[in-house]
Amino acid sequence: MDQQQTIKTLNKFLQGQYMGIHAYAHFIKHLQHSSLKDSFISIQKDQENHATIISERIQNLGGTPVTSEGLIGKVEGQIGNLFKKDNTEEEIIKHAIKGENLYGIKMTEDLVRDKLDEESLSIVHKILDKDREHVDYLKSLLHS
């Protein structure tokens, strides 16, 4: 596997992690229910930890990790800010599930397919497993 390709792919994945961190910050700002807010803060901390893990992997491969979600991520973030400020907690949870599923999991699976060495792929798969746990937890909140 080409090391430069791995670094490039991991940096794109890292940009996605930053998008998730910022999306959760936006959600947290609009949540009133303290235990739900605490749950979202916990998920955001997981994403920050994932960003650190990926940054370290990129550095170990001799690359320089990105430090933000990039221009496309910023534009998407601004579009996301257009969602109604008076969304219910249920709507916020649904937005978070959609973000985790579509951007966090599905797009990452497409992004990394055949583009990472085994160790990097293993790291990404562990992160995706945690993202799936987040989705399951968020879905459980809708049914409680």
From TrEMBL:
Residues 5-110 form the DUF2383 domain. SUPFAM superfamilies: Ferritin-like. InterPro entries: DUF2383, Ferritin-like, Ferritin-like_SF. Pfam families: DUF2383 (PF09537). This is Ferritin-like domain-containing protein. It comes from Peribacillus psychrosaccharolyticus (Bacillus psychrosaccharolyticus).
